[in-house]
Structures are given as C-alpha cells and as structure tokens.
Amino acid sequence: MQSRIITFSRNVFLPLTTVCRNRCGYCSFRTPVQDGCLMAQDVVEKTLQGGASLGCTEALFTFGERPEEEPGFAAYLRQTGYTTILKYCEAMCRKSIACGILPHTNAGILTYGEMEQLREVNASMGLMLETTAKIPAHVGSKGKEPEVRLGMMEDAGKLKIPFTTGLLLGIGETMADREESLMTIRDLHKRYGHIQEIIIQNFCPKPGTPMAHHPVPGTDEICATIRMAREILQKRIAIQIPPNLINASALISCGVDDLGGVSPLTIDYVNPEHPWPAIDELKTIVGDAQLCERLCIYPQYIKRGWYHPDLEPLINRLGQIVKLRSSGS
Question: What is this structure's pTM?
C-alpha cells in the first residue's frame, strides 16, 4: 500500500511593505508609514540570492493592502523611482525570476487588470478568504468585505491563475460560517478550476491588538474543520496547515495534504513569534507519510499550461530539481 504524500514548498518570505489600509482587530503586521514603508531593493536582492543558494524555489511577496491609500506612502514610494507598489512588486518579481526563484504574490485586493499584469511574472497567486461572515474583527477593513474578496477570487479564475486561498479560524466566525465559506470556495472552483490549495490557519493573538486576549481554537476544533473541508472540497484541492502555528503532527491524519511554504532563511513576518520548523523536522511532523517538495504552482496547472510562457523554462528546471530532491537522489 502506497503511503500518503504530504507536500511543502521551500521559500523565502518578502514583505515589500507593512503599510496597509485595513484595520483588522487581530493584526500586528500592519505598521504606520514612518515605520513600515518599503523593503529596500538591495534587501530584496540579497534575500533572493540567499534563498537561491539554499535551494528555495518560491518567493512569497506580500504587502499591506492598497498602501497608497495611507497618507505619506505614495510620496515615499515615488522617491524610490516607482509610482505604485504593484510596479515595485512586478520589478522585484522579475529579479526573483532572474535569481531562479518562482514568484507567488499575495497582495490583498487587486483588480482584474492588476492580476493580469502580475500574472506575467507570477507562477501562482493568493488571497485568504478568511470567512464569508461579517465579523467585528473586520470593521474598518473595507478590503475584508467577503463580496470584495470573492470577486477577486472569481477574477483569478477567469484569468486561469493557480490560486491559494483559505480560512482564518477563531476571528469571530462560527462553524456554520466555516461550512459556508468552504462551500463558496468549492463552488468557485467548480466554475473555474483554479483553486490549487486552501489553508486552514488558526488565529494567533498578538499583544497590543484588540483581540490580544481572544480565545483561540483548539486542536480538536481545527481537526474538525479540516475534516469538513475534505468532505466539502474537490479532491484535487490540497488542504494546507502552517506547521509553525499549530501542532501539525496531531493534525496530519485529519486530512492534511500540504505544509505550505517553509523557509530556511526568512522568518514568518506575519507571525514572527512562531519560527519555522527546520526542513528536516518536517519529516518527523508527517510521521509515516512521505514528504515531497513541490513548486508554488501545482503539477496539474503546469500540465494545463496555466502560466505565462516566459516562466516555462524556470518552471521546468525547478520541477526537475524538486523531483530529484523528493526522490532522495
């Protein structure tokens, strides 16, 4: 009997800015303009070069949503020679490709045209749905309106972008809300076939935030949500958990397929208090399952050609590398 396969991606995490228009009650990633501003180009290049030397295949580009809406950010950005954060992101994605690492961008809400532009330099993209429920934690965060996020996810499907989404557990939603969120993702995938993975992520309280003392979901509750996801979602959608935030070993048997991006170089900037496990530790986490490395674009989308033609040589080369590493050669 063939053992289960659990996958992961070897990545570098590059938060291009922590300036954000949203005011989520659980977030400590967002910072004011004077504190967050921009990850400098030389820092991005050094990180990419370091990641390439460690065998990383994915560059996860993130930033706060629509930072230009925050007073002072646009003027600061112009001083660097870039007119928008998306133009800066596109330029850094090109540097990533030049270093031999595939970009994956999670930039918050984007228009159809913006995603079409970034598709040229990204092998995949993502946006956490979090929940379809209207919750107090999202008051003051117009980018967290469920219909806005679902609209972007639908546009990604129309553009044939291999897409990552997910639920954030414990931010005020109910189990019924989670079921509704999962069914909505299922229906989107039924129409467009573009959801390659869904993250089941637990909320982590942050000191100094309005939800600093909010209760967190336990392992049994997370397991129940993973099992529900497996029942609702199409089989080809991978279910991912973050191995640095929860007791991943206890959840593998609940229906987990993937451990997400794990970095041998950079921290988890969204949850800096939770270090990544070493790559070798992942083998212990998966237990009797087989650990295999993957790219940020899943094999079924490579076969379909769901990527810009300019990315094909790098996708093919890195695909051979992860195949050899996973086979132990």
Answer: 0.95
